[in-house]
Amino acid sequence: MSDITVASEEAVSEGEIRSAVRELCARYPDSYWRDIDRSEAYPEEFVRALTEAGWLAALIPERYGGAGLGISQGAVILEEVNLSGANAGACHAQMYVMGTLLRHGSDEQKDRWLPPIAAGELRLQAFGVTEPDAGLDTTSIRTRARRDGNTYTIDGQKIWTSRALQSDLMLLLARTSPPDPERRWFGLSTFLVDLREAGDAVRIVPIETMLNHNTTEVFIDGLQVPAENLIGEEGFGFRYILDGMNAERILIAAECVGDGRWFVERASNHARERSVFGRPIGQNQGVAFPIAWAHVRIEAADLMRRRASELYERGEKCAAEANMAKLLCADASWQAANACLDTYGGAGFAREFDVERKFRETRLYQVAPVSTNMVLAFLAQNVLGLPRSY
Ligand SMILES: Cc1cc2nc3c(=O)[nH]c(=O)nc-3n(C[C@H](O)[C@H](O)[C@H](O)COP(=O)(O)OP(=O)(O)OC[C@H]3O[C@@H](n4cnc5c(N)ncnc54)[C@H](O)[C@@H]3O)c2cc1C
Questions:
Q1: Which pLDDT band holds residue 104 (cuts at 50, 70, 90)?
Q2: How far is the CA of 168 from the centre of ligand 1 (A)?
Q3: pLDDT, tens digit, 9 for 90 and up, residues 336-365
Q4: Is 390 in the pocket of ligand 1 (CB under 6 A)?
Q5: How far is the CA of 230 from the centre of ligand 1 (A)?
């Protein structure tokens, strides 16, 4: 094991986390990520190193072999990964998917699954929620789980299930009772599916995408899942998934901050070094000001991310803040991406400078895991008291 590890026994400062993660990420330079992107591969070596150092088990309590850190520290880890030029999308789900098991799983389930996940022996990187005909309207999903004795038989289809081919386990949301118009949230259940045992009942087909995200379609036909793999109570799965959303929003916001700072740093360096018309392009306010604006927006958005993390860690309500953080950070990173591309001019489109890769990667956060529209619709309804629109 590397000496760059999570110091789980004593309190670790943000600075210590930053420098340790930064040191690890420095072993995987731009060229590593460029090659992975070009070949649409999975960054096995990087994910293994991050796992072995304990960073992906940061949020798992110490009694299960994790570091027992808080969401603020988890966020700093993912921020540093993206700030290094890497893409945390390859492994971030392990941090938030595990939360459903941690909060709603039985003691037996936690004892069985969390230690091997923390030790890096099992990967829980796949999260099967979205379906082709349901989209953002999760309560309309049709994947069906029918119980017969001690086994559930599951049939259906998922889309955009990222890392299903690289994961041992998948957290799957399926319908266990017919839709009830009075209780739209009821009737869905969460299962921990062991993909290693699924055989022909699960067919996983990669989707070619604009960015390398190892995302797939998952066709499920007669999958047998032991009833002991049902997480929590039958019918309450949608609540459990919603419960994990705030953590997911905060962690994604942190990745956006990492991306945003990467764009500002690269744009600033280029604006200092590139000379046209006999002077550095950064001397032109038309070049400098968009970069400065990008910096301002990222720093402001980061404050909302920190506010949301604090509330989350105190166990207080934070849905509004977590959603605002995700929206503001995603927006700030996208503005920074555009400022950086403009600063690079034609070079921004050349693969060798990585700007176009990070540009594609950060664009995703406007749409997934939740779209900007849905965040605004949530805030309009739940914070401002406007009529429900979804
Ligand atoms: C690369 C990638 C990886 C992903 N990984 C995963 C994963 O691992 N697991 C998983 O379960 N899902 C995953 N997703 C799915 C992702 O969460 C969805 O794409 C996202 O939630 C949007 O759903 P949709 O694509 O079906 O869009 P739709 O629901 O079809 O919506 C399309 C557009 O319409 C807008 N819209 C819809 N309804 C409303 C409304 N009422 N008001 C305003 N606007 C509205 C949306 O904002 C959106 O822009 C991934 C997606 C991508 C692209």
A1: very high
A2: 24
A3: 999 999 999 999 999 999 999 999 999 999
A4: yes
A5: 25
pLDDT 10s digits, 224-239: 999 999 999 999 999 9
327 lines ligand 1 (CB under 6 A): no
**Dist. CA 50–CA 196, nearest whole Å:** 23
Residue count of the chain: 390
| Residues in CB range of 337: below 8 A, 6 or more apart | 259, 263, 355, 358, 359, 362, 363
The verdict on the CB of residue 89 being under 6 Å from ligand 1 is no
- Portion of the chain with pLDDT greater than 70, in percent: 97
Element (H, E) at 155: strand 151-162
Nearest protein Cα to ligand 1, atom 43: 373
Q: Are 171 and 161 in contact (CB under 8 A)?
A: no
Q: Quick check: CB of 371 below 6 Å from ligand 1?
A: yes
Interior angle at CA 374, CA 293 and CA 160, nearest 5: 100
Q: Does residue 88 surpass a pLDDT of 50? A: yes
Give the Å distance between the CA of 132 and the centre of ligand 1.
10
**138 CA distance to ligand 1 centroid (A)?**
10
pLDDT band at 6 (very low <50, low <70, confident <90, very high): low
Does the structure show a pLDDT above 60 at 280? yes
Q: What does the mean pLDDT of the chain come to?
A: 95
CA of 311 to the centre of ligand 1 (A): 27
Task: In whole angstroms, give the CA distance from residue 309 to residue 304.
Answer: 9
> Would you call the peptide bond into 369 cis, given omega within 30 degrees of 0 as the criterion?
yes
b vs e for 88-127, b when ≥16 Cβ sit within 10 Å of the residue's Cβ? bbbbbbbbbbbbbbbebbeeebbeebbbbbbbbebbbbbb
Q: Give buried/exposed letters for 166-203 (b at 16+ CB in 10 A, else e).
A: bbbbbbbbbbbeeeeeeeeebbbbbbbbebeebeebbe
pTM over the 0.90 mark: yes
Q: Is 94 in the pocket of ligand 1 (CB under 6 A)?
A: no
Residue 212 C-alpha to ligand 1 middle, in angstroms? 17
Amino acid 96: pLDDT = 87
237-273 vs 93-104: helix crossing angle, rounded to 10: 160
Which numbered atom of ligand 1 lies nearest the CA of 158?
11
How far apart are the C-alpha atoms of 141 and 129, rounded to whole Å? 8
